[in-house]
Design brief:
- By secondary structure, the chain is an alpha/beta fold.
- It folds into 2 domains: about 150 residues, 3-Layer(aba) Sandwich (Rossmann fold), CATH 3.40.50.1000; about 70 residues, DNA polymerase, domain 1 (Orthogonal Bundle), CATH 1.10.150.
- About 45% of the residues lie in helices and about 10% in strands.
- The protein has 9 helices and 6 strands.
- It has a 6-stranded parallel β-sheet, sandwiched between helices.
- GO terms for molecular function: hydrolase activity.
- It comes from Gordonia phthalatica.
- InterPro entries: HAD-like_sf, HAD-SF_hydro_IA, HAD_sf, PGP-like_dom2.
């Protein structure tokens, strides 16, 4: 390899776009608890099917699915109030039990050592993301994009297209990391190749996806292979 791995024969991506919940941080169990409490508040049970359907969603999409399951009429849906209710419960749990996904910290360090710019790309709202960045490390990322800062969150492609704009690279020169069907669908819609590390719900295979069981042992060769540089 040459001193700059981005010029090597097996070309690396020019930017790496990281999902947060379930990919870098093990937050999905905590979100599930909050969603269970919200469903109970509406008088229903968060079934496994409903829980899977809300995983990786933006706040609006997740709340909408629970509202619909509880048959709450549109006139009775208090998105702002219920989102604030959810945020307070989630932040309280994060303060007590926020954990890294296996291999995530080493994977971030690997990409940083290769001098590849990184962007955090999450459906989580800015208020919650800013708290999580205290654990992730703000200085690791050249930019962050949240679900409440784009026209529509994942599975729509807007959030990934915005991330590419912020890092100043064509979307096709980036590589994403995701864990959920919703996040994976967003990468596919945006036209960015992705390494998928499923956390709880299986992800449908696509030609642009490379699957791993964990981020542990990730290498630059793995990034090059997933990016299609070989």
């Amino acid at each position: 390899m040459t001193d700059d791995p981005r010029t090597d024969a097996h070309r690396l991506p020019r930017a790496v776009l990281w999902d947060m919940d379930g990919t870098l941080l093990d937050t999905e169990p905590l979100w599930t608890v909050a969603m269970e409490q919200f469903a109970e508040k509406l008088g229903i049970e968060l079934t496994p099917e409903l829980q899977s359907a809300t995983m990786g969603n933006s706040s609006v999409d997740a709340l909408t699915k629970v509202y619909e399951a509880a048959r709450v009429p549109e006139s009775g849906r208090d998105f702002d109030g219920d989102e604030a209710w959810m945020v307070q419960r989630v932040l309280a749990m994060f303060a007590e039990d926020l954990r890294w996904r296996p291999g995530a910290l080493d994977a971030l360090d690997l990409v940083a050592r290769a001098e590849i710019p990184m962007v955090l790309v999450t459906n989580t709202i800015r208020e919650v993301t800013d708290t999580m960045l205290d654990t992730l490390g703000r200085d690791r990322f050249v930019a962050t994009v949240c679900g409440d800062e784009v026209e529509a969150g994942k599975p729509e492609p807007h959030i990934y297209r915005r991330a590419a704009q912020l890092v100043g690279e064509p979307i096709g020169e980036c590589l994403a990391f995701e864990d959920s069907p919703v996040g994976a669908a967003a990468t596919f819609a945006a036209g960015v190749r992705a390494i998928i590390v499923p956390s709880a719900v299986p992800v449908r295979p696509r030609a642009t996806f490379t699957f791993r069981e964990t981020l542990e042992g990730l290498t630059l060769d793995d990034l090059a292979d997933a990016f299609g540089g070989r």
